[in-house]
Amino acid sequence: MSKKTHLYIYSKNRLSGSNSSSDFSIRLLNPLDDIKKIRLLNVLIPNTVYNINSNNNTFLWEESAGGGQISSTLTNGSYSAQTFATMLKTVMDADSNNSQSYTISYNIDTGKYTISSSANFSLYFSQMNSTIAKMMGFASTSDQTGSSSYTSTNVCNFSFSDFISIKITQFEDNMKKNIYGGSIYYDHTFIIPNNTNFSDIISYHNDVDDENEIVFNISKSFKFLNISLRDENNNILDLNGNDWWFSLLCES
Question: Residues 9-25: pLDDT tens digits?
Fold first, then answer.
């Protein structure tokens, strides 16, 4: 007969020496033995992640008038489409090699950007973190070149990530599969949808059998866990000093 154990993990209880609340190690007070399956039950995460952060704050561009490629550093923070336009204009005007001035407008009806100047310039989205292109509504695989004005083809998306993954290193060893939304994943331990705004609480409750459930090839035992929160590009998230909580159902 199978045995089921509830496991509650709070990042504040991480071991000393851990990197942060989103990249930490924890020692289980009651080790888990002969575990065959583990299902994610509940998650509470404060959405205090900046959509411009150390993973994506480099903006690459060039002016046709000369001076070579420009690598601008964007100011980290949580931005709306309007406040991002203001910040990006400030950065591009300041970093211009030819004293060009830029106009960055956001159309609230279409949800798209137009970036323009008096002379030609290029935007190298293919060389940037893909989230910058997604935020601005441009394709991350295509550069914008040969013009003095560009309008995004897609609607802007200012979420820092469409989903969050909880990566637990020990669980991924001999992990057979994880099922989420009817799909099988092999590169994420658990997956949580993210449709919240900055400063909201990302809340997940799982009452579906087999959803976000790991099945192991062989029975496993655990005394320590290495846990990290990651975005859709597998970058470790920065909760900016906040802690989070989740619970698991472990079956032996």
Answer: 999 999 999 999 999 99
